[in-house]
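sanity check this chain:
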Amino acid sequence: MIATRDGAEVGRLDVPLYLDDAPRPSFDALRDGRFVRPARSAGPISRVRVESSPGDPLGEGKTYEFAPEDLTFAHGGNRVSVVLREPPEGPWSIEFQTAGNRPLAVGEYRDARQPHASPNSAAIEANFQGRAAPGLVGGFRVWELEVQDRRVVRLAIDFELRAEGSLPPVVGTIRLNSRFH
């Protein structure tokens, strides 16, 4: 909803609307490995939220929230990296990559593994406060990706990953100037 006065915008309210019984994006859906399309936004959304389940060695059951200005987003053709700048509690990063040299694009990437584990599958690499998880598997969904001059200018990714393949998951949403909630 946009409020105007004499033709000039004076206020804006941007919230997703859902139909009854329609699937809704949620961290519970991500924990189940389901990627539910988020609602469109009237204005750009920028936020990063990551939730770790109790018992997960990578995130240690914590919730992480970062302001986009504290992050560096990089694009390398077949991958996107998100790195926290100078964190007081230790390094934090996550990288999403396609198999081979195919460009990373809007789409769903299932059965993602650490880059060295399987060159024929998509890859996901995570490091939270200096903790990297062995045997990482998971999936991610790129809803939106726009790059200009090798710089990420618009991004929407949802992901779920599990250390050692079966431990409780880490799930998250990454938005940078996104048109999705």
About this structure: The chain is about 5% helix and 50% strand. The chain has a mean pLDDT of 83. The two ends are 15 Å apart (CA to CA). Residues 23-180 form one domain.
